[in-house]
Amino acid sequence: xxxTVPSAAETDEAGKVAATTPVTGAALPRTRSRWRGAGLVSFxxxxxxxxxVFIGVWYAVSDGVLNDQQRFMxxxxxxxxxxxxxxWSNFKTMMSALRLTCEVTFSxxxxxxxxxxxxxxxxxxxxxxxxxxxxxxxxIQTVPILALTPVLSFFFGFALTSRIIVCxxxxxxxxxxxxxxxxxxxxxxxxxxxxxxxxxxxxxxWKLQLPAALPSMFTGFRNAAGLSVIxxxxxxxxxxxxxxxxxxxxxxxxxxLEGERLWATTLTASLLGVAVFxxxxxxxxxxxxxxxxxxxx
Amino acid sequence: xxxxxxxxxxxxxTADTAAGGATGTGAPALHFAGVRKRFRDGTVxxxxxxLTIRPGEFVSIVGPSGCxxxxxxxxxxxxxxxTDGTVxxxxxxxxYVFQDATLLPWRNVRDNVRLxxxxxxxxxxxxxxxxxxxxxxxxxxxxxxxLPHELSGGMRMRTSxxxxxxxxxxxxxxxxxxxxxxxxxxxxLNDELLRMFIxxxxxxxxxxxxxxxxVFLSTRVVVMSGRPGRVKADLAxxxxxxxxxxxxxxxxxxxxxxxxxxxxxxxx
Lengths: 297, 268
Prior knowledge:
The structure holds two protein chains of two kinds. By secondary structure, chain A is an all-alpha fold. Chain A contains ten helices and no strands. Chain A folds into two domains: 1-46; 77-288, MetI-like fold. Chain A has helices spanning 11-65, 77-86, 88-125, 127-142, 145-156, 160-184, 188-195, 201-238, 246-256, 259-288. Chain A is globular, with a radius of gyration of 25 Å. Chain B has a domain at 2-93 and 198-265: Rossmann fold, CATH 3.40.50.300. In chain B, the strands form two sheets. Chain B has a six-stranded mixed beta sheet, sandwiched between helices. Chain B has a three-stranded antiparallel beta sheet with strand order 2-1-4, covered by helices on one side. The chains are: A mainly alpha, B alpha/beta. At the A-B interface, α1, α7 and α8 of A face α3, α5 and α6 of B.
């Protein structure tokens, strides 16, 4: 970062400049190196320790608590890995299921984002729209999916479409609520700044509200991303026609008492959730991290 | 009321002599007559406020907190409406600098400075030229790519000034813009503000809590009473522009500051 001191800003401002810029310049690497040092402990060792305890408890329950007839419920971890992941044909089945679940997840998430943002923008434009729609957005989130399955299957069949709809229903709400929150919590001073120049609603939305809402929108996207994996799995669990996804397989392995493959599938589904969550965290930092620093003011 | 009448008359005569001939003949740039503002909750912020600012005048308002100084600016800019009285604003091209720099945190200095030009739909070539001019006028050349959080408070305020300067307003409203800055930065920005004032020849209405700042900048200092606010005294400042920073240490300057302070204190 090269700093040129402006001609008009001489001693005092220059002092300020010199004082300010190195601080930001140095603060970044310092923060990062502290992150790395602390990161090893707090982001690798600590979760790693919890993982070790978790595996220990798993073995203890599997070997100590369950007898041979019951062990299918929680087979020991190495069996889950051997049968669930290392067996080539099982692994291939799982990967094709994963691919399909990804399809449902990403279509569902994409649709949720488009509809969710559109609904939130509409709500932000008029109080009466917000008042008429918001309660129903809450209801959509709270309605038991189970109750909707007959209706969905009647209109959309037992395959992909219904799975995606379930996914959207589950993932949609955090996008609406976070986007709306972001659009509505724009600083009043900034609104007045715009009001001085009488911009159109669209200009105000595009140049002020949407950029200002981006950080909370990304919070919503990230939560929705985690939920969309769950939505896809639940959808596949209920709507089994067509190619199997992870959710379909969960249901199949449960009924066949194939504990190893059931747990391997469960782990894969969780990993997918984590991956999407992490991806959106990364994307948020890429898009708004440059100017938005929570807790740094 | 008698005080207000006489002081306004005095102001009219002094305004012509004060700023070296550059000020005030012709239609007022800004005119408040009998302005009253009552908020929805019943508080009366302003009452019987009469104030005239002529083209080329730099008028500062000092007064106790909550005396409706900001309300006066908000009324002048159209952000608020007066409950009673008339407000005449000679131009639609009014610059308004808030207490906070109010920069958009996702826009760098250049894009923040460009904002008003975008909102007023200036064509892009004109926009680029004016943005570069304004940035160099406030001394931020070289910082165009910096984001607001990378700037000091003074530089954020410079950016905010430049954003309004882009439109080359004929009337400038300042709502205590340097109140949050340290003394040294504040004095430097005062010097530079006067440089812009001489260069651009706008009519200015400037709110401050600092008597010295008011006297240093202005052709006239208006003292307002506590809530409900109204004009209590209107003093001409006889110093010629350009004013050197050393003016602040002169006896006449101190005497005038004393006089303004006395008017401020004389209130119950």
